[in-house]
Amino acid sequence: xxxxxxxxxxxxxxxxxxxxxxxxxxxxxxxxxxxxxxxxxxxxxxxxxxxxxxxxxxxxxxxxxxxxxxxxxxxxxxxxxxxxxxxxxxxxxxxxxxxxxxxxxxxxxxxxxxxxxxxxxxxxxxxxxxxxxxxxxxxxxxxxxxxxxxxxxxxxxxxxxxxxxxxxxxxxxxxxxxxxxxxxxxxxxxxxxxxxxxxxxxxxxxxxxxxxxxxxxxxxxxxxxxxxxxxxxxxxxxxxxxxxxxxxxxxxxxxxxxxxxxxxxxxxxxxxxxxxxxxxxxxxxxxxxxxxxxxxxxxxxxxxxxxxxxxxxxxxxxxxxxxxxxxxxxxxxxxxxxxxxxxxxxxxxxxxxxxxxxxxxxxxxxxxxxxxxxxxxxxxxxxxxxxxxxxxxxxxxxxxxxxxxxxxxxxxxxxxxxxxxxxxxxxxxxxxxxxxxxxxxxxxxxxxxxxxxxxxxxxxxxxxxxxxxxxxxxxxxxxxxxxxxxxxxxxxxxxxxxxxxxxxxxxxxxxxxxxxxxxxxxxxxxxxxxxxxxx
Length: 535
What we know:
The chain is 32% helix and 23% strand. The protein has 17 helices and 22 strands. It has helices spanning 18-26, 39-45, 62-67, 86-91, 104-120, 122-130, 156-165, 181-186, 194-200, 220-225, 243-252, 290-308, 331-347, 364-379, 392-398, 470-480, 513-521, and strands spanning 10-12, 31-33, 51-54, 73-76, 95-98, 148-152, 171-175, 190-191, 203-206, 230-234, 255-260, 279-281, 354-360, 402-408, 417-423, 428-436, 440-446, 449-453, 457-465, 485-492, 497-504, 526-534.
């Protein structure tokens, strides 16, 4: 695909702060503010613009991106990208920029505000007094001091919440597989397992992204692990909580109260949980401060202006390609390195402390891009904040990760080879991949075992004894569970050990990953099984 024609006019499709609009004016860019226009009108006028600025309401899907034949940059004034089809934008050569850190302070402060309001029953007392009542004894609260607070996620928001809680003389626990214990200790936080956090904390606050792994993180089993009378705060993502399990926990008294700023469906259609007397809630206000709105507007517009001016390095969420170049030139290499990093990251159970990227036969012009893409792949699966190709090294350094890049000569047996090796305190995983026909990515080795498969979709990585019948049992078990096998790659070592990667189709009814893993581990000869999802 050829590069899109240059057009520097900007469409602002949703309300943006005056500060952000002033930056567009100062840059000499023409722009139109058309907040609230219909979808039909947006589709009809988008071909006339090179840049598009949105917030969360506008759905920037493939249809809109394809209609924007002159569109080069989409700016999302905020952190989340749920309303932007980043994959489609990348395929169409459209850069996507956002404001990954613009609202972290506001989100952290809102979490603290919700926590304190929950403990002291401020909303209920406010409503009662406004109604002309004076019922002091009905609103006896709970002190924060002396409590054990468990933070699920120590990204930009979670770490700020921890810093603000420390002076309140609380004990801080946290679960974050990407924070080494030494780094957590520097922050005054005791890093524990998720099971320990849920069983010990008096207060649990969620600060993790919404992924396949974190979906319904707070479920019936987790509620059963909690202490009696625990408090729960969620200002991260609504999908982290199973609403039915939360409702039951509130009714039983296991959960003394919940503070919610986010919901599975926004705006909600079912207000049963919201109406529960032990729930206080706000309509997704974590980023809704004057300061945050200004910061996200400035951060987004500055990057959009930089991209439209032809800067070769832009903090894009997808591909920062040189001005005037074909965005697909470096993209296959970056996809390969990113997939290798993401796969290695999901295979390594512990928090990595070192990332090593080895490049053989990779063009010099894309070597740095490959390393950054690999680091981004390593961080993406469980990192709370938005990770892009520019901020990935910074986030890695903040998390205590050591990054090294090794450029080697021509690899034996392959025209090129990208290997990502992750090391933790006690284990090590490596993934090697190659690029065929300058475009097709293939993984060719895992932990040194040769196996070839395409790094995409839902994969089951299995380690087993090299004995007869194992492959048949795996196929039979998956068939019994109604799971279709799309591909099967095998590898064996000289030590009577073998491995397999099974690509599966996700059933329409959903995939119970824990049950599937347990079923496979119950088969004779299976030593380990782990489900990996690659984009």
